[in-house]
Amino acid sequence: MKPLRIFAAVFMFAGIFTGCLTLVLLVILMVRFPPLLIAVLLACWMFCRLLKLITAAKAATASSP
Asked: What does pTM read for this prediction?
């Protein structure tokens, strides 16, 4: 049981480390190339608008009998 726990801990550490490294590299790329920053901000804005639209549609269908 202990080797399985160690393997799971190492696997989780590797996943967290990879995720953090990816995030840091993305930030570095966005600072280095401003069009990428604009594209990411535009994508986040579009995603927020889409979420608002979906939640409004769900609320409208849930309130109607």
From this structure: 0.59
Q: Classify residue 25 by its DSSP letter.
A: H
Cα distances (Å, whole numbers) of residue 40 to 1, 2, 10, 30: 44, 43, 32, 8
Q: pLDDT, tens digit, for every residue of 33-63?
A: 989 889 989 999 999 999 999 999 888 887 7
Give the Cα separation of 34 and 38 in Å (integer).
Answer: 6
Which is higher by pLDDT, 4 or 59? 4
Q: Which of 25, 22, 24, 26 is nearest to 14 (CA)?
A: 22
* Contacts (Cβ under 8 Å, ≥6 apart) of 29: 36
d(CA 37, CA 15): 25
DSSP state of 1: -
